[in-house]
Here is the input.
Amino acid sequence: MAYRSALINVMAQAARKAARGLVRDFGEVEQLQVSKKGPADFVSAADLRAEEVLRRELQKARPTFGLRMEESGETAGSDREFVWVVDPLDGTTNFLHGIPHFAISIGLERAGQPVAGVIYDPVKDEMFWAENGQGAHLNDHRLRVSSRSKLTEAVLATGIPFHGRAGHENFLAELAAVAAEVAGIRRFGAAALDLAYVAAGRYEGFWETGLSRWDISAGLLLVREAGGLVSEIDGGNKMLESGSVLAANASLHEPIRTLLRRAKQRP
Ligand code: IPD
Ligand code: CA
Ligand code: CA
Here is the structure.
């Protein structure tokens, strides 16, 4: 049984508690699909309810820490160093469509750097967790990124920009440059889980732009702690600020980056 620190226990318990409500609400969504109004309002209420549970649980356990939450924004803590970075529902579009692939993501940052992270997929009961220097885990098992080193055997995940997002043309160029070289590309619709799956060796890599801090704070740590590399797509290391992410195992990070760079250079 993997040793979980008090901090990880706090995060995992908060995630499980909030997930109970999400799973109940997910069950309702299918009923609502058929109603005229549709489930959109209901889903945003579910999202807010989950965030409130997380806020309550995390504040109760560590009253001095700050909070940065997707729905309610920032709350400064008396401790200026530690901040929870929370996405109460990653994969909202899936949730709304009754697709069972979504998660709660909780990161803890110290002076702006991720030091602990939990990503919980309640449908599959998969708790991904990592702490700085302590490795990455899925439930009770230690995680390692995949050892595949050939692009032709690699399965990559990505995020496709959608209505209201920028970068459509650029994305299509990236897709064209990468698709011809790899075994497959997936778009599952929850960036936190995409990163967790890289940490678990399910995907060899993942790239996306336009992400927010709460999508990636926990996941970046998971990938690093599982032995993978993370950077911005152009190789920089301001992922949390820019929202540009390329995560992969150590053998394939550079080859994937080269393909993405080639896409950028196309006329
Ligand atoms: C979204 C998901 C999606 C990614 C989007 C995110 P949300 O988060 O992670 O996979 O492509 O960029 O905004 O809105 O479901 O929390
Ligand atoms: Ca998200
Ligand atoms: Ca969200």
